[in-house]
Queue: 4 jobs
Job 1
Amino acid sequence: MDRDSDGYPSSPLSRRAGVQTPSWVTFREEERASNTVLCFPFKPLRDVRLSRKDKFEMREPTTTRPVAVDPIEAYKTKVKLLETELERLNKKLEDLRRDYSRLYTRAQHSDARCTDARWKFKRLREAYEDLARVTYETYGKEEFRALKEKVEADKQQVARKRFLASQTMLVINTDDTDTESAAH
């Protein structure tokens, strides 16, 4: 079995990765180590490679050793990120509030215009009703009926005059066609 420089057996996986792991590091210890200050549980050892002269040469590993992360700094960074996200969400919420306020104001104005139009129509209808009542009371029942009949008679007379005028035009047109056909 292959052993590392400390005398511990090394796994084929760690040999392939270029990093030798002591056998006493179990998965649980790796997990616990990754949750603590040390993020990288393996200890990189010197890399043994063949040189051009086919001699073993000791070289420093090409991978950098992981830096221990300070939990307080990590927490501060996380807090800064959360504060930035909170500011972004607050800005978005403020924009939404502004849009809602604008839409609500516009709806209130349109509702006020509708209410104003309804109120004007109601006032107009009341004015016509008052006019009809005053006319009815002023002229009395019979006079009001006579006035109404006179208006209807005038309407019928105007309609009759229009009808006769249209008939006269037809007659004139008919006479023109007869004279034209006789001329040919």
Job 2
Amino acid sequence: MLLIAFFCPFVLAVEPLRLAIYLPSFPPYMFFTPERAEPQGIVVDLLTLFSAEESLQLEFVADNRKGGEQRLYNGEVSAMILSPDWVSHPDRLIFSQPILPYNDYLFRLQRPDNTEIMQGSTICTREYYVYPNLTDLFDSQYLLRVDATGEASLLKMLENGRCDYAYIHDQTAYWLIGREFPQLKLQKLSSYMAEDAIRLAFHPRWQPVLQRLDSFIDRLREGGELETLRKNYVQE
């Protein structure tokens, strides 16, 4: 487990705010780079600003998607990027308002034909992720799920022909193509597109802090700062 703490001056909170960071990464929202030991990303920046304003001690705990969710249920971490549709027990958590919208798309390597998605097509997905609009298709094996440990691995598998399509957040795809896969030419399909938004899930004892965070998000959105945070990482 990797634990990184950021100390704000005059810390008043007895318990630090611990954010579970996905491993290997979840760009552009939270990720590590070889050049920096501390995490970066839109949500990291958002919580750093919020913690400074609230005089909270902010810590980052790195774990995989499944392990982080379990830590959240147990109260070992305070928060994690999760949507109610993604988790096993949404009734055991509380959720922030939507922070930033995104769409999940099927991406494929760019080609001139418009072939329909065929039965038996392989779809690269992220390990431990839940995809509500694809669950029945995977369960019936109409489409075949091929898991990758992270989004970068997912696109690499698509590039190497290990799957026919990759199912991925559009913002994450844009970030990866711009920084790690500039040679990759992709097209997105409208089939099975899902609309959602990035949210933070909290352990219930953090309800008072979550209420203040929601107000903080509203303020940043109204002032345009939230969109600025996004554009710091994603240029579509």
Job 3
Amino acid sequence: MNPPMRKHNSRRPEYLLNDDQLTSRVVDLLIALEEMDADAVRALVDPDIEWRNTGLPSVRGSKRVERALTIVSRLITRYEVVEVLTMTTDHNTVSSRRREIIRIGWFAMHLDVDGHYTFANGLLRIWDDRFSYRRLLRGLRFGPTT
């Protein structure tokens, strides 16, 4: 005979996300960026977020990140994640390799990006995108939008 089961709350606190939930939040972020959906991005980020990009100063705080994304969205005509090559989790961090296109009029940048996303309390705390400027220069294209 099995011992009686103790009743306990089996729900995980909201801030403890499993691997699928973490990767889903990163995918949601990338989709929100493609759609330039500021409300969706705002819902995913921690007030104390730090956004890092290779060779650029870090942007700290959700208000500043929102301001930076607003400026970027006025400059670019299209942002697209073409392919997610890998996505793995390690505790509260998701690492991904993706290919993306950033288009400004007839000018397009094809990038291979290593993204690292660290979550705290269920929200994105550190967003760290890394890429090679040399590979970026090789990926520059001019031509009509497709």
Job 4
Amino acid sequence: DVSTASDLTPQERQVVALVRQGLANRDVAAQLFVSPRTVDFHLRNVFPKLGVTSRTELAALPLDL
């Protein structure tokens, strides 16, 4: 069961938007004032929600975030 971007939490949407811009976890963390482990946590939740298994697949999704 694949979710849509609207099913993501606000924090997950922020992380996804920055990752899709090509930022590394540490850079996403710095911009959002959280730890890199928090970014990793959000991505581990986002991947199954959106049916992807990598950052590359995430970036290729036609999402309007």
